[in-house]
Design brief:
Number of strands: 5
Strand content: 5-15%
Number of domains: 2
Order of helices and strands: HHHHHHHHHEHHEEHEHEH
Shape: elongated
Helix content: 55-70%
Structural class: alpha+beta
Low-confidence stretches: 1-21, 425-436
Distance between the termini: 26 Å
């Protein structure tokens, strides 16, 4: 039997589809093509494609966010320890409370981002977590005062900028984080007792420009990532279509177009595989050579259309009475079928052959000019290689099955004959075509 393999059966192509979120949806495919035809800066993903994009990048985004949070937590602990060791006690003590908030908040966000959640939950917790971290950093400087005041505000903006640059999150979340960082900076800088209003406004304007530039860069990075994703969707779809076409061509190349059975080429490959191309001989295998009796008379009297219908029906009967998961059936010639029964003994093969022959006769397919019967009949030759018998090459076993088929034809047709070396001869084989 031919087992058709499609791209959906391929384990490797099936996994890629799940990972990339590729959908066999013409609307999505059309939208992907439309977006790729536009300028890069004009790319705007619709809700469905954006959802697929977020699913695609979530593992990497979550990994980056968790790593950033852990880095911030570790850095917060180390900074607090160094401050306690190096700074005067009155200064370091003022830093303890705001510094102590930083690490637990960062670790809590890292835990939340260990698995996917609803987008609004993830976004809200991330924004709240980053805001709390930025506030903690700023409060360390505000609490210590003096030179630490503006230094920690600058550190806070540095922390915010690193988050903006490396977090592959929606642009709206990025803008909110940037806005919160700038608001904190404005509030604390404008209330800095050590700075005049003009200096505070100048530094605020400078850092605002830098944050806006960072947000713009992050937006461009996101658009490029989205365009890459669109190319992936299109290319995966094209690869899938090409694989389906190749599988279809392979299926057609190995299949008899009339009966749907394997063709001679496929059966030859199957036999080579069973015999491992001459390197080994299977322990037990039975081979059935089946031939429709007086098929030429059927074609001549009823026409080729009726002959084709007969071939299809006989092929279906043979397939019905073999093991679909183990046995192999092929249309081997015009009206000849070859059946391979791995692991079957002579007695088991005989039972299968008799069932096939009886059911073909019982189907009552017309063949009015046949000398055997008014209906289509089948002659079958069997050759068996067993553990107690002689080991044969595949070619020898086929010759034996063919010789047994000749004996079935010679002894009256519509019967099953098992090959016996004592009753076979080269003359029998030479006369085979004449009898058929």
């Amino acid at each position: 039997m031919v087992k058709r393999t499609t791209v959906a059966d391929s384990p490797s192509i099936a996994a890629d589809r799940a990972y990339l979120g590729v959908q066999d949806d013409p609307a999505i495919i059309a939208e992907v093509e439309r977006l790729l035809s536009r300028r890069t800066r004009d790319i705007r993903l619709n809700d469905e494609i954006n959802r697929l994009f977020r699913e695609r990048i979530w593992p990497q985004t979550a990994k980056i966010i968790r790593a950033w949070m852990i880095w911030v937590a570790i850095l917060g602990v180390l900074t607090l320890a160094l401050n306690m060791l190096l700074l005067p006690p009155e200064v370091s003590k003022s830093m303890v409370l705001p510094s102590a908030m930083l690490s637990p908040i960062a670790l809590a966000v890292a835990v939340v981002w260990r698995r996917p959640r609803a987008p609004w939950v993830q976004g809200s917790l991330l924004i709240a977590g980053v805001f709390a971290i930025l506030l903690s950093v700023a409060m360390v400087g505000v609490s210590a005062g003096g030179e630490f005041y503006e230094r920690h505000l600058n550190i806070m903006l540095f922390v915010a900028i690193t988050a903006i640059i490396i977090f592959g999150i929606p642009l709206a979340w990025t803008v909110i984080i940037a806005a919160l960082a700038l608001c904190l900076y404005f509030v604390f800088q404008l209330t800095n007792p050590s700075l005049e209003l003009g200096s505070a406004l100048a530094s605020a304007l400078f850092f605002t420009t830098g944050v806006f530039a960072t947000v713009a860069a992050r937006r461009n990075m996101t658009i490029l990532a989205q365009k890459t994703f669109l190319f992936e969707l299109r290319d995966r779809r094209r690869v899938s279509e090409l694989a389906e076409v190749n599988d279809r061509l392979e299926y057609l190349a190995r299949t008899d177009p009339l009966t749907g059975l394997a063709n001679r080429r496929w059966m030859t490959e199957t036999i080579d595989h069973l015999w491992d191309k001459g390197k080994k001989t299977p322990e037990r295998v039975a081979m059935l050579m089946c031939d429709i009796d007086e098929f030429k008379k059927l074609n001549d009297h009823l026409g080729h259309a009726e002959g084709d219908r007969c071939l299809v029906q006989v092929a279906g009967i043979i397939q019905k009475h073999v093991r679909r998961s183990l046995d192999h059936v092929a249309r081997y010639g015009g009206e000849e079928f070859l059946v391979i029964l791995p692991g079957m003994s002579e007695k088991e093969a005989l039972c299968v052959a008799e069932r096939v022959r009886e059911n073909v006769e019982a189907a009552a397919l017309p063949n009015p000019t046949s000398r055997v019967s008014r209906y289509v009949t089948l002659s079958i030759g069997i050759a068996v290689q067993g553990p107690d018998g002689e080991n044969h090459t595949s070619e020898q076993l086929q010759r034996n099955a063919d010789a047994a088929l000749y004996r079935a034809k010679q002894s009256g047709r519509n019967r099953v004959v098992i090959h016996s070396p004592a009753t076979s001869s080269h003359d029998d084989i030479a006369e085979r075509n004449t009898i058929r």
